[in-house]
């Protein structure tokens, strides 16, 4: 028996990230334009970094509140009051070591060995992989695509539910498709979850990256306080803090101790000086978010114009999030295409194969970058498309 055979089957089965595989292939190439990862190109703004630096200088380097410092949980309550019109108590928030950690804790609280969790695909691959590592079975329900864009057929979700189903994972606005659920769809999903006694894990990280009027619709718009919903979120996207690894869960106050315990036995809390930066992000960062969203809107439109003009790229203009999910005429193997694009166009994209059922023929481009670099990358892609 080899060393690897002595590990848990779930650990051995954890898939290599299809995104990281391409990143590792091309990350050291001179002049490569990296559009593969879900992050922008701006560093964290100084009003956030300075607040963290002050906390560090003040000696905030000791163990702290497992569930997050009170000031940060109060700032989260203020953030939801401003952007969602909801008066929430600080006891409804748990600070986590990233949005990914929030998802892991949500899964740990709801599903275990043999349980099933349904998610909408194509999807960010980390949820399904995290469920598998926990011993649960991720079940994909594909979004529908037509000339009218991406949509969710709630009847398909209902058909996928079995006696083993414990939760529905819903990411809207969606990474990678940009699909954004309207309030009616959210209500239908919530009604289904209520009828079947299921939890919803709501990933609304891109709520403010919405290109309609105001933020995207949220389960908070249709839910009651007693609904079985865990909201998982992160500071990464709104405030250019991807490397900080700070997130949160919004949950019912009655569950706070459970999640505090789960944090104790996973990370034992987020560094207090980093939480000071997160407080500044929430309280002082609305203007920065507005500028980020407008920058992303202009970038989205630029990329869509350039790639659309080729006559070979097929896509729906995304309603939200930071990604263009597109196909290219003649390309069916997106993994091979992503490596070829690195080699031949010196542009990094994520292959749709990384995003599960329904994504195999697609490529994902993150357009959250400065316009001159994005324009150059789009023109390189357009030139490459002429060769296939």
TrEMBL record:
Residues 38-381 form the Aminotransferase class I/classII large domain. The keyword Phosphoprotein does not apply. GO terms for molecular function: transaminase activity. Its cofactor is pyridoxal 5'-phosphate. InterPro entries: Aminotransferase_I/II_large (IPR004839), AspAT/PAT-like (IPR050596), NHTrfase_class1_PyrdxlP-BS (IPR004838), PyrdxlP-dep_Trfase (IPR015424), PyrdxlP-dep_Trfase_major (IPR015421), PyrdxlP-dep_Trfase_small (IPR015422). Keywords: Aminotransferase, Pyridoxal phosphate, Transferase. It is an enzyme of class 2 (transferase). It holds the Pfam family Aminotran_1_2. SUPFAM superfamilies: PLP-dependent transferases. The keyword GTP-binding does not apply. It catalyses: L-aspartate + 2-oxoglutarate = oxaloacetate + L-glutamate. Its EC number is 2.6.1.-. NCBIfam families: PRK06108.1. Belongs to the class-I pyridoxal-phosphate-dependent aminotransferase family. This is Aminotransferase. It comes from Mesorhizobium shonense.
């Amino acid at each position: 028996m080899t060393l690897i055979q002595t590990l848990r089957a779930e650990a051995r089965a954890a898939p290599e990230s299809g995104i990281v595989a391409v990143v590792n292939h091309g990350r050291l190439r001179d002049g490569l334009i990296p559009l593969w990862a879900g992050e922008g190109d701006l560093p964290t703004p100084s009003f956030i970094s300075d607040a963290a630096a002050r906390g560090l200088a003040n000696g905030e380097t000791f163990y702290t509140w497992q569930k997050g410092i009170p000031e940060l949980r109060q700032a989260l309550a203020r953030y939801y009051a401003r952007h969602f019109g909801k008066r929430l108590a600080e006891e409804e928030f748990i600070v986590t070591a990233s949005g990914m950690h929030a998802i892991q804790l949500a899964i740990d609280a709801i599903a275990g060995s043999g349980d099933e969790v349904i998610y909408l695909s194509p999807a960010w691959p980390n949820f399904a992989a995290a469920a598998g590592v926990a011993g649960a079975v991720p079940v994909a329900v594909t979004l529908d695509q037509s000339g009218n864009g991406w949509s969710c057929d709630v009847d398909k979700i209902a058909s996928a539910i079995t006696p083993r189903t414990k939760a529905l994972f819903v990411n809207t606005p969606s990474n990678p498709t940009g699909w954004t659920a309207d309030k009616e769809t959210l209500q239908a999903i919530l009604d289904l979850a209520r009828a079947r006694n299921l939890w919803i894990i709501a990933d609304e990280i891109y709520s403010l990256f919405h290109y309609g009027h105001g933020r995207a619709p949220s389960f908070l718009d249709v839910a009651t306080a007693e609904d079985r919903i865990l909201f998982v979120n992160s500071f990464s996207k709104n405030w250019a803090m991807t490397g900080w690894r700070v997130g949160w869960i919004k949950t019912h106050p009655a569950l706070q101790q459970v999640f505090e315990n789960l944090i104790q036995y996973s990370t034992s809390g987020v560094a207090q000086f980093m939480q000071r930066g997160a407080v500044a992000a929430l309280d002082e960062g609305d203007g920065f978010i507005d500028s980020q969203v407008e920058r992303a809107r202009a970038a989205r439109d630029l990329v869509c114009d350039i790639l659309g003009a080729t006559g070979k790229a097929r896509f729906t203009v995304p309603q939200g999030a930071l990604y263009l999910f597109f196909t290219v005429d003649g390309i069916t193997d997106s993994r091979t295409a992503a490596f070829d694009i690195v080699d031949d166009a010196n542009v990094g994209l994520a292959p749709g194969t990384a995003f599960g059922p329904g994504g195999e023929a697609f490529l994902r481009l993150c357009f959250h970058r400065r316009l001159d670099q994005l324009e150059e990358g789009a023109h390189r892609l357009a030139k490459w498309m002429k060769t296939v």
